[in-house]
Specification:
This protein is an alpha/beta fold. Helix content is 29%, strand content 21%.
Length: 303
């Protein structure tokens, strides 16, 4: 049998395979490019970028927990000007798609970044709506369907690239948020972002993270993420990108079978820098083993 077709298309952008990196776990690829050619990936998703530099949260801000890790980095980044001067030219040197993750504390902050990226070599924009909305008392944009629809509509009106809305799992009904993003004009959704968690040092009787709470990622969240992707696939017509605790090709394949068009590999990058290309190869091997000629044939087939 000839090698199967692993290409997938999201909002008119074709990826050579369905494996992307997850924002915040890969920087802008510079460190990982020392290990392998980033052209082996469907896309590289950058760390979140804001209109001005963000210092992030005080340390300690990362800790291991059973089945994963908690992080309270606080979206530390150098700001859009440094990002466009330093990171995008680097990524443009690889034969892979570039997805820029955008963060902000207000609609205006998101729009400034989106407008700045209009002429830059970014193929897709991923909008992180787990950021606190300062005008609404710090409630995350992604936890209120009206806010999700409004920020999606505002970004879509300004963006030159297709937009992926990254959904927070810290909600009662993920499908409500996905439908709101679709109604606002999103080209795709990615889910899930991290679950809010906490760790306490029982000997010192204090919080492990300076921020008290952090985002839980890693294998512990995987079954929740698969369930939410499957539910969302029944609720919207736009493409879904699945992420959450992918460690192996089988983990990624669960998302595809549940209805995701592509996947993002995150926490696994910290323990194995080769995780993402290994998963891409593993998906191809699975297709060969099952006699499947095109990866699109397996997307969403588990009903």
């Amino acid at each position: 049998m000839s090698r199967p077709n692993t290409a997938v298309t999201i909002a008119g952008v074709t990826l050579k395979n369905p494996v992307m990196t997850a924002s915040g776990t890969f920087g802008s690829g510079q460190e990982y490019a020392e290990f392998y050619d980033l052209s082996r990936l469907g896309a590289v998703v950058t760390k979140g970028v804001s209109d001005v530099p963000w210092p992030g949260n005080p340390a300690p801000r990362v800790t291991e927990v059973t089945g994963g890790m908690l992080n309270a980095i606080g979206l530390q980044n150098p700001g859009i000007d440094v990002f466009c001067r330093r990171d995008l030219p680097f990524l443009a040197g690889f034969d892979t798609k570039i997805v820029v993750n955008v963060c902000g504390h207000s609609e205006e902050e998101y729009l400034r970044v989106v407008e700045r990226l209009a002429e830059e070599p970014a193929d897709l924009l991923e909008i992180n709506i787990s950021c606190p909305n300062v005008k609404e008392g710090g409630i995350a944009f992604g936890t209120d369907p009206k806010a999700v629809e409004a920020i999606t509509k505002a970004v879509k009106a300004k963006a030159k690239q297709p937009i992926i809305m990254k959904l927070s799992p810290n909600v009662t009904d993920i499908t409500e948020m996905a439908r709101a993003a679709e109604a606002g004009g999103a080209d795709a959704v990615s889910l899930i972002n991290t679950l809010t968690g906490m760790k306490i040092d029982v000997e010192r009787q204090r919080f492990v993270l300076a921020n008290r709470t952090g985002g839980l990622s890693g294998p512990a969240v995987h079954p929740i993420a698969v369930r939410m992707v499957w539910q969302t696939a029944q609720a919207v017509k736009i493409p879904i990108i699945g992420l959450g605790g992918i460690q192996t090709p089988a983990d990624a394949l669960e998302f595809l079978l549940a209805g995701a068009t592509a996947v993002m590999v995150g926490t696994a990058n910290f323990t194995d820098p080769y995780a993402a290309p290994k998963i891409a190869e593993g998906i191809e091997d699975y297709l060969v083993r099952h006699g499947v000629q095109d990866v699109k044939e397996i997307i969403g087939i588990v009903k």
